[in-house]
């Protein structure tokens, strides 16, 4: 089990991480990236079982990363939860169409994060 | 033909009973009538044979039996009491077969008839009662066969006797067994049938209900398949809500083509297709429904607001979208109205630009003053966040009122109306402490007025640049005097009351620049007051032997430390009696016994006005109150003098510097 | 400017603070903000809005409150405006702008990455034209902060 948290805000990555820690996730499963390009290179090198991804980021943004990942056979079934402040419906439709497994609007709420991770991980053997 | 024969046969066999019976009774009824018919025919044939063979006794007995059987048929048909026949027939047959067996017949073969008795008895009466009759009959048969010389049947050979009884018993056992199994099977079938009927009834009831729902509900309910086509039945209101009846099977998303932007229709298709991907969570799908509320023009040209909701269902192994739509047009209309009002305001704004014939200096002055007023209101709004200001709404109101009045005065009618609307909003909050949400509404309205002012300012600036290039060097005129003259001119035109302005003792040279705006505002308010309350129409003035034109005189004197300003008109003046009356109507206390000069001060009370009609010019009751507040705020004082019928005078002292 | 364009931002602000810091800030009397106004605040997070409406959202804090909010979020005591404080202010305005889009779905909007303006008296580069800007002060147990919204529908009917 390895969770990759991608957000340009370090504070936000910490908030997500702390939320997961309080949900009893072990502290050694987290890997962090601050933009899409960095996340992609980590994915290439490391076996990742869940991707928590921000949308608005410099370099490669979250949506572009999802499109790139889903075009590759290797990442077809990678659980991706987009964690973003973008709350408009047309944004969520765009993201789901691009292939995110689920979508979570910031600020992150412990209960919905847990619920979404659980359902996103269903069917994967982690 | 066949069906007719069938009908007649059925009618005979069922004794003319039309109503359906329990399965068991049905079988017995058919059986008893069948036996009666077959038995009757057989008896008739035997009777005829015996008759022609010369056996007249046999013939008579057989014919008699045939008559009895026919009578039984008639009895059952007549009384419908087939149960009686069920008991009667086995007894009759027992007697008949017993007679045949006992009497021996040819080679003692009469006993052979007995083999059919278990069939008749048990099939007619069931294995219990029928078994009893069968058992009784075998005892009788054994008696006639084995008791020596009792009946002619004794003559049968012993082997035959044993085989006859044996066969009878075997047949009996098989029949009882068969009947038992048949009855059990019948019960089983019956139970199944009843359950089936129950389920069918329930389904029928459900269908009736569904039909009712689909017919009656106000929501449109329909199914969409993976080709995004509407399939199967849908509620009657769907056509009405969508304002479109294409019958069944049309593409749902196509309905929105041309009604929504192409991008949105595309997003809708993407969205609906997501329902056919079971891995996407339904909560997520529900939360991003792009048709949750949608405004569109229907094919028949009606503007509607519709609210759709979707959910995925599995129907007979096929995944479908169960969709419902509600007409929210009425709720949306309210919002629509708000929007329209806003558009109207924008149009007025455009008109405003077209009707600027106002003198540029006046306009500039107005803009500056209005900006000051708004800035002042805003200062108070900001201060209110730090500390609650008791009189915030009163100040807001007075500021807005002043802007409105000034706008009306210089002829910015549509702008003035716009501010008037805000004034109406603020009016309701006077003396109250609205919370931030309500103030937000007022602030946003104020921001719109400020934006319009800024637009006018930008326009003036461009005009100014233009004018400068024209190099017009006309001598600058005093703005206070100009404003006052303009006010009299405008109000004369509006009220039809002619007036003459006397400014001979009014010089603005000694006016400290800090007071110029104040003095101008005060004078404008007094002038407005004269026209609305003081100066009489022409006829009235003639009757009172006053000069036709109303006289307005403004005097300004420099008295060293103070500036004395006096304003006079020769109108109706103030009537203390009427002021007292108004005071008591407004529930203001303790004015009844005060002396006249004190009572005159009432006109400075906020909210006190004796004008019955509210117009943009006066009658709002804030004008003179505002004047007094302002004068006192700048350290001055104001007095009113009046002689009823002869005019009014305001004496003001303002500190210099 | 329409009041419907402002309330989503207010709701988003209150919700973001409630979720992240556990208490809902109270709105105070709103006022008008001048385009050239110099802000009395120490640090502001700015997000531009583009698309079918355009405008700017500004979230302004006094230094102390910004530090305190960051302390609550990171669990590390902040005594100066460091990268974490800047990050926090940026993320907050990002959440507010992003969340507010939900209430403004009549427009397709795009929001920029947040930028931070600092200094005792700083000015914001508001869009030109006559977009009115409304300021909404908020109060929290830790102090006041301010949200300014200027949003204009650029679709002409």
What does this protein look like?
The complex is a heterotrimer of chains A (126), B (657) and C (157). Chain A is built from five helices and five strands. With 126 residues, chain A is of the alpha/beta class. In chain A, strands 2-1-3-4-5 form a five-stranded parallel beta sheet, sandwiched between helices. In chain A, helix 1 (10-22) links the parallel strand 1 and strand 2. Chain A starts with a strand and ends in a 5-residue tail after the last helix. Chain B is of the alpha+beta class. In chain C, a hairpin with a 2-residue loop joins strand 7 (133-140) and strand 8. Chains A and C meet through helix 1 and helix 4 of A and helix 1, helix 2 and helix 3 of C.
Please specify the SSE layout and strand pairing:
The complex is a heterotrimer of chains A (126), B (657) and C (157).
Chain A: E1 3-6, H1 10-22, E2 30-33, H2 36-45, E3 50-53, H3 62-70, E4 80-84, H4 89-98, E5 102-105, H5 110-121
Parallel strand pairs in A: 1-2, 1-3, 3-4, 4-5
Helix pairs in contact in A: 2-3
Chain B: H1 2-13, H2 23-53, H3 56-79, H4 82-103, H5 117-146, H6 158-216, E1 220-224, E2 230-231, H7 237-242, H8 262-274, H9 282-287, E3 294-297, E4 303-315, E5 318-327, H10 329-354, H11 360-386, H12 392-410, H13 413-427, H14 436-470, H15 479-495, E6 499-502, H16 513-534, H17 538-543, E7 550-559, E8 562-569, H18 576-585, H19 596-600, H20 623-633, E9 637-643, E10 647-655
Parallel strand pairs in B: 6-7
Antiparallel strand pairs in B: 1-2, 1-5, 3-4, 4-5, 7-8, 8-10, 9-10
Chain C: H1 3-21, E1 26-27, E2 31-33, E3 43-51, E4 53-61, H2 63-74, H3 83-100, E5 109-111, E6 115-118, E7 133-140, E8 143-153
Antiparallel strand pairs in C: 1-7, 2-7, 3-4, 3-5, 3-6, 4-8, 7-8
Distance between the termini of chain A: 6 Å
Task: Give the number of helices of chain C.
Answer: 3
One letter per element, helices H and strands E, the order of chain A comes to EHEHEHEHEH
Give me the secondary-structure category of chain C: alpha+beta
- Low-confidence stretches of chain C are none
In this structure, how is the largest beta sheet of chain A organized?
Answer: 5 strands, parallel
Along the chain, the helix and strand elements of chain C come as HEEEEHHEEEE
**Largest chain-chain contact?**
A-C, 24 and 30 residues
Mean pLDDT of chain C: 87
Average pLDDT for all residues of chain A:
91
Report the count of strand segments of chain A.
5
The rough form of chain C would be described as globular
């Amino acid at each position: 089990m390895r969770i990759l948290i991608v957000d340009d805000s370090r504070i936000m990555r910490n908030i997500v991480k702390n939320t997961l820690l309080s949900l009893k996730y072990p502290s050694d499963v987290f890997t962090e990236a601050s933009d899409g390009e960095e996340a992609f290179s980590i994915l290439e090198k490391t076996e990742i079982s869940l991707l928590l991804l921000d949308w608005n980021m410099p370099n490669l943004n979250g949506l572009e990363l999802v499109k790139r990942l889903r075009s590759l056979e290797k990442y077809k079934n990678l659980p991706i939860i987009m964690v973003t402040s973008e709350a408009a419906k047309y944004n969520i439709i765009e993201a789901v169409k691009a292939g995110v497994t689920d979508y979570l609007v910031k600020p992150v709420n412990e209960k919905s994060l847990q619920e979404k991770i659980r359902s996103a991980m269903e069917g994967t053997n982690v | 033909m066949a069906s007719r024969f069938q009908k007649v046969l059925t009618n005979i066999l069922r004794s003319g009973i039309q109503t359906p019976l329990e399965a068991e009774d049905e079988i017995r009824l058919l059986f008893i009538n069948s036996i009666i018919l077959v038995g009757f025919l057989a008896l008739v044939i035997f009777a005829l044979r015996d008759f022609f063979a010369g056996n007249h006794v046999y013939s008579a007995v057989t014919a008699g039996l045939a008559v009895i059987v026919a009578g039984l048929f008639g009895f059952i048909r007549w009384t419908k009491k087939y149960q009686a026949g069920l008991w009667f027939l086995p007894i009759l047959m027992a007697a008949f077969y017993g007679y045949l067996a006992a009497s021996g017949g040819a080679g003692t073969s009469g006993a052979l008839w007995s083999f059919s008795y278990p069939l008749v008895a048990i099939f007619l009466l069931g294995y219990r009662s029928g078994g009893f009759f069968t058992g009784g009959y075998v005892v009788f048969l054994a008696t006639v066969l084995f008791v020596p010389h009792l009946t002619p049947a004794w003559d049968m050979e012993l082997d035959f006797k044993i085989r006859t009884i044996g066969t009878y018993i075997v047949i009996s056992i098989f029949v009882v067994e068969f009947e038992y199994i048949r009855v059990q099977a019948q019960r089983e079938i019956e139970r199944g049938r009843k359950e089936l009927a129950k389920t069918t009834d329930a389904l029928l009831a459900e269908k009736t209900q569904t039909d009712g729902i689909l017919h009656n509900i106000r929501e449109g309910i329909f199914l969409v398949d993976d080709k995004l086509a509407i399939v199967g039945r849908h509620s009657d209101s769907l056509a009405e809500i969508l304002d479109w009846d294409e019958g069944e099977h049309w593409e749902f998303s196509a309905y929105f083509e041309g009604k929504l932007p192409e991008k949105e229709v595309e997003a809708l298709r993407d969205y609906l297709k997501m329902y056919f991907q079971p891995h996407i969570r339904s909560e997520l799908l529900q939360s991003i429904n792009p048709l949750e509320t949608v405004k569109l023009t229907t094919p028949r040209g009606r503007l509607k607001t519709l609210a759709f909701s979707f959910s995925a269902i599995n129907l007979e192994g096929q995944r479908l979208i169960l969709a419902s739509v509600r007409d929210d047009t009425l709720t949306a209309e309210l919002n629509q109205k708000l929007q329209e009002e806003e558009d109207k305001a924008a149009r007025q704004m455009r008109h405003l630009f077209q009707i600027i014939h106002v003198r540029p200096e006046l306009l500039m002055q107005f803009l500056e003053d209005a900006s000051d007023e708004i800035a002042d209101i805003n200062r108070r709004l900001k201060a209110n966040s730090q500390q609650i200001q008791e009189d915030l709404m009163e100040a807001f109101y007075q500021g807005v009122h002043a802007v409105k009045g000034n706008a009306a005065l210089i002829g910015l009618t549509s702008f003035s109306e716009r501010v008037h609307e805000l004034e109406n909003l603020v009016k309701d909050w006077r003396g109250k402490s609205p919370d931030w949400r309500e103030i937000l509404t007022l602030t946003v309205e104020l921001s719109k007025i400020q934006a319009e002012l800024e637009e006018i300012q930008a326009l003036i600036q461009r005009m100014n640049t233009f004018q400068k290039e024209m190099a017009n060097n006309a001598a600058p005129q005093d703005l206070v005097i100009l404003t006052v003259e303009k006010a009299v001119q405008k109000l004369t035109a509006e009220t039809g009351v002619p007036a003459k302005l006397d400014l001979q003792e009014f010089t603005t040279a000694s006016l400290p620049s800090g007071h110029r705006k104040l003095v101008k505002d005060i004078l404008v308010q007094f002038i407005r007051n004269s026209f609305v309350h003081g100066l009489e129409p022409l006829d009235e003035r003639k009757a009172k032997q006053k000069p036709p034109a109303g006289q307005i005189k403004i005097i300004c004197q420099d008295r060293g430390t103070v500036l004395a300003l006096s304003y006079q008109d020769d109108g109706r003046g103030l009537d203390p009696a009427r002021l007292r009356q108004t005071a008591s109507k407004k529930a203001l206390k303790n004015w009844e016994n005060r002396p006249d000069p004190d009572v005159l001060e009432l006109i400075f009370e906020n909210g006190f006005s004796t004008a019955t009609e509210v117009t943009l010019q006066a009658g709002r009751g804030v004008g003179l109150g505002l004047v007094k507040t302002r004068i006192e705020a700048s350290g001055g004082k104001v007095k009113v003098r009046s002689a009823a019928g002869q005019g009014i005078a305001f004496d003001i002292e303002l500190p210099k510097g | 400017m329409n009041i419907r364009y402002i309330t989503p931002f207010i709701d988003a602000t209150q919700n973001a603070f409630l979720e992240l810091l556990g208490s809902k800030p109270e709105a105070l009397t709103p006022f008008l903000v001048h385009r050239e106004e110099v802000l009395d605040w120490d640090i502001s997070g700015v997000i531009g809005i583009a698309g079918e409406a355009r405008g700017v959202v500004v979230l302004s804090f006094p230094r102390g409150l910004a530090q305190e909010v960051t302390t609550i979020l990171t669990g590390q005591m902040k005594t100066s405006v460091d990268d974490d404080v800047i990050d926090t202010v940026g993320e907050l305005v990002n959440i507010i702008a992003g969340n507010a889009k939900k209430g403004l779905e009549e427009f397709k909007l795009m929001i920029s990455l947040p930028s931070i303006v600092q200094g005792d008296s700083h000015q914001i580069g508001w869009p030109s034209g006559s977009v009115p800007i409304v300021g909404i002060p908020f109060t929290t147990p830790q102090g006041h902060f301010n949200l300014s919204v200027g949003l204009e529908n650029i679709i002409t009917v």
